[in-house]
Design brief:
By secondary structure, the chain is an alpha+beta fold. Helices cover 39% and strands 24% of the residues. The chain has a 5-stranded antiparallel β-sheet with strand order 1-2-5-4-3, with helices on one face. It has a two-stranded antiparallel sheet with strand order 6-7. Helix 3 runs antiparallel to helix 4.
Length: 141
């Protein structure tokens, strides 16, 4: 039994050593979930749902924001400058996406700004970088 555990540990260490490390900050688009994930750090975290479109990921313990999930990408206004920028470059700034999501959520659910604004503000203050989004994510709605 002890030999089997040692072999398993060795196998796991080898696999971890060969695993491709993605440089952070980094983000990606999920077609299946129609959402963008973005992370500043690779640490254990907990999810904090802010509203229908934003989930923040906070580090265990200190609670600082280490990432976010923004959903409903295909439902963004097609002629908004952010969507036009994706068509032009294939990338979107996470801060611009957060600001547009905040505005969209306010239009869909007015009156909840006081609860949401501090969380969006905190995310905008710490998350920096771009996320690749395929241009065809906005086609065929």
């Amino acid at each position: 039994m002890a030999e089997e555990l040692a072999d398993l540990r060795s196998l796991l260490r080898d696999a971890e050593g060969r695993a491709e490390r993605v440089p952070l900050p980094s983000g990606w688009y999920s077609r299946e979930g129609d959402c963008v994930f973005f992370f500043n750090e690779d640490v254990p975290y907990r999810a904090e749902r802010v509203d229908d479109h934003l989930t923040l990921y906070r580090a265990l313990g200190p609670g600082r924001i280490v990432g976010a999930e923004v959903s409903g990408i295909r439902k963004l206004p097609q002629h908004h400058r952010l969507v036009l920028e994706v068509f032009r470059t294939g990338y979107v700034e996470i801060v611009a996406l957060l600001l547009l999501t905040f505005q969209r959520e306010e239009e869909e659910n007015p009156g909840e700004t006081a609860v949401r604004e501090p969380r969006y503000g905190e995310a905008v203050g710490v998350l920096r970088g771009t996320v690749p989004i395929p241009r065809d994510a906005f086609l065929g709605r």
